[in-house]
Amino acid sequence: MNGTLVQESPAPAMSETLEWKFSQVFGEKTVDEEVQDVDIISAVEFDRTGNHLATGDHGGRIVLFGRADTTTDHGVPRKDLEQMDCLPTRHPEFHYKTEFQSHEPEFDYLRSLEIKEKINKIRWCQTANGMVFLLSANDKTIKFWKVQEKKIKKVSHMDATPTHAMRNGPLIDSSTSNSCKPCMKNGASIPYEGVQSLHFPVVVTNHETSPVARCRRVYAHAHDYHINSISNNSDGETFISADDLRINLWNLEISNQCFNIVDVKPANMEDLTGRTYSVLRSISC
């Protein structure tokens, strides 16, 4: 049979190949390097937009990342974008934002049980006014966190000039400066001339901002078994927490009360059938 053999050229390789690697800790680790148990990542969660990433580890810490390439044009001119069928593909990049200690190790004296600080679950909540909110849970306790950008204040220098030090507030009332001497706690006094020679810090507020995390609520003492799930409701006000046998409904603003909505604990523990995961699937409430 006569024919022509055509050799097909190989398909062009992608300029940036996404390479997957398995790692349970941050940073590059050598084969011989020992990994600390507290550094092992135990929870990973994206928010709904995909622009924020939170991770939790065995040490009870939460690390937040923000997506750096949030623009859609990727630096391509608008004229060229209009002629394209699809936008050029680019792997997302996440930059470190902040980290904070979410949970500490505890001890339940009633049950003689050690509660580890390991983060089991993280859930992002609705954002408001540029602030992000998230829930974090270990085996027994859930915490509600608020993270917002705050301007950085730091001491620029130690100023010895009285007029410059006045920026942080007057040292001594001018009407009493000649008649009164500042006193110390032990009763000793300092001459006014000595006050003028003291060095006071000058605090300057920079235009730079830094994320600061603050715990708003702590939801505790509601589960006899280890928490395996937390899930937000679409109303932005409530969430559920679940262990193997019970599911509780919480209000984000009320930490001392919850409602038990599911209890599957059998009368005979030999017939035990546990639940390993629970989630809310509501779209609108």
What is the strand and helix layout of this fold?
Layout: E1 41-46, E2 52-57, E3 61-67, H1 78-82, E4 94-101, E5 106-108, E6 113-115, E7 121-124, E8 132-137, E9 142-159, H2 162-165, H3 192-196, E10 200-219, E11 229-232, E12 238-242, E13 246-251, E14 254-263
Antiparallel strand pairs: 1-2, 2-3, 3-4, 5-6, 7-8, 8-9, 9-10, 11-12, 12-13, 13-14
CATH superfamily annotation of the largest domain: YVTN repeat-like/Quinoprotein amine dehydrogenase
Strand order of the largest sheet: 1-2-3-4
Which fold name fills CATH's third level, the topology of the largest domain? Methylamine Dehydrogenase, Chain H
Q: What CATH architecture label of the largest domain applies? A: 7 Propeller
Q: What order do the helices and strands follow?
A: EEEHEEEEEEHHEEEEE
What radius of gyration results from the CA coordinates?
29 Å
CATH class of the largest domain: Mainly Beta
Please sum up the structure shown.
The chain has 285 residues and is mainly beta.
What does this structure look like?
The B regulatory subunit may modulate substrate selectivity and catalytic activity, and may also direct the localization of the catalytic enzyme to a particular subcellular compartment. GO terms for molecular function: protein phosphatase regulator activity. Pfam families: WD40. InterPro entries: PP2A_PR55, PP2A_PR55_CS, WD40/YVTN_repeat-like_dom_sf, WD40_repeat_dom_sf, WD40_rpt. It is a single chain. The chain has helices at 78-82, 162-165, 192-196, and strands at 41-46, 52-57, 61-67, 94-101, 106-108, 113-115, 121-124, 132-137, 142-159, 200-219, 229-232, 238-242, 246-251, 254-263. A 4-stranded antiparallel beta sheet has the order 1-2-3-4, with no helix packed on it. A 4-stranded antiparallel beta sheet has the order 7-8-9-10. It has a 4-stranded antiparallel beta sheet with strand order 11-12-13-14, with no helix packed on it. The protein folds into 2 domains: 38-69 and 89-151 and 208-271, 7 Propeller (Methylamine Dehydrogenase, Chain H); 152-207, no CATH class. The chain is mainly β and 285 residues long. It contains 3 helices and 14 strands. 5% of the residues lie in helices and 37% in strands. The model is unreliable at 1-9, 11-15 and 171-177 (pLDDT under 50).
